[in-house]
Amino acid sequence: MRRLDRETVDRIAAGEVVTRPARVVEELVENALDAGAERVDVAVTGGGEERIRVADDGRGMSREAATLAVERHTTSKLPDGDLRAVETLGFRGEALASIADVATLELTTNDGGPRGTRVRVADGDVRVDAAGRGRGTTVEVTDLFHNRPARRESLAAPATEFERISDRVAAYALLRPAVAISLDHDGRRTFATPGSGAFEDAALSVYGREVARESTTLDAEARVEVGDGDASVGIDGVLAYPSVTRASAAHVRVAINGRPVAMPAIRRAVERGYGSLLSGDRHPVVALSVSLPPRAVDPNVHPTKERVALRSADAVAAAVEDAVADALSTADLRRSADVAM
Length: 341
Ligand code: ADP
Ligand code: MG
Fold this sequence. Notes:
Elements: E1 2-3, H1 6-11, H2 21-34, E2 39-45, E3 51-56, H3 63-69, E4 74-75, H4 95-102, E5 104-110, E6 116-122, E7 125-131, E8 136-142, H5 149-154, H6 158-175, E9 180-185, E10 188-192, H7 199-207, H8 209-213, E11 215-225, E12 230-240, E13 245-246, E14 252-256, E15 259-261, H9 264-274, E16 283-284, E17 286-291, E18 297-298, E19 309-310, H10 313-340
Parallel strand pairs: 2-9, 14-17
Antiparallel strand pairs: 1-4, 2-3, 3-8, 5-6, 5-8, 6-7, 9-10, 11-12, 12-17, 13-16, 14-15, 18-19
Helix pairs in contact: 2-6, 6-7, 9-10
The structure holds adenosine-5'-diphosphate and magnesium ion.
Magnesium ion binds near residues 30, 31, 90 and 95.
């Protein structure tokens, strides 16, 4: 755990981290994945403004680390202070502190020692206690924006805020199939993936049998020019057949190196891969994980972290389009062969 130096802090784009409940969920889930969790359980009450809890079985924190973690600009994810070397999802060291500014935050954690630690931050007051808990971390955020009436006012109805949360958790669940990810809302289970590593298992859990039956998996590799030579690009995921479409493009989900991103250029490449199979203004259901060597990615320092800058973005998009088109044409052949037999 270390404090970022001034220069690094300045290189991190200024901006508010916590704008709505879904952002809190995103930051907490990313922290859990960065901690190497194999299970992440998310529970939400209301639209998240009442309560958000994220529990993981990751590596946890020592008492010292947990106490530092809720302070601004502390991170354990920049070993040499070099933003370019970052491969983990988070690195700005401000999420927990920013959340604690606008909510009550309780963090219970254990790094494998005989006893755990509870850090509670409420109204700027920090209390540290011993707590029983197995290895891992639970973060509970309550009364979000209780001290920011204008922000609270600007939230949509709880059902709408929960939809945003559900969409974000679904993105991680679909794009990180090796992690068992669950989402509960007001005490009821929304979905839970098995963490088997198979994209089709995650799609079955999130979308149900009908979509899963009408889907095929994709596992391709391409070589892409990234300026200083070739790089190998892995393209894995699950694609629903054109028999399953949606009115919105929100179900075309893409991760770059494990991080869900909003990149219209890649989404359009996916849709070009479907070609004329997509009719009119319909969009497919897709979860695609693109893996690139770090040197092909510029670290994203935008506060919402939704975009990454790719070197040779066009070449990556072309590789994605080809991989999607290939997977669909092979799948179609196999399906018609099934029918013929
Ligand atoms: P960042 O993720 O950018 O480092 P955060 O404020 O999100 O900043 O977290 C601060 C630090 O707290 C992290 O660098 C990490 O060391 C620790 N941390 C946060 N959440 C977890 C977690 N779920 N498991 C283990 N460590 C965590
Ligand atoms: Mg973080």
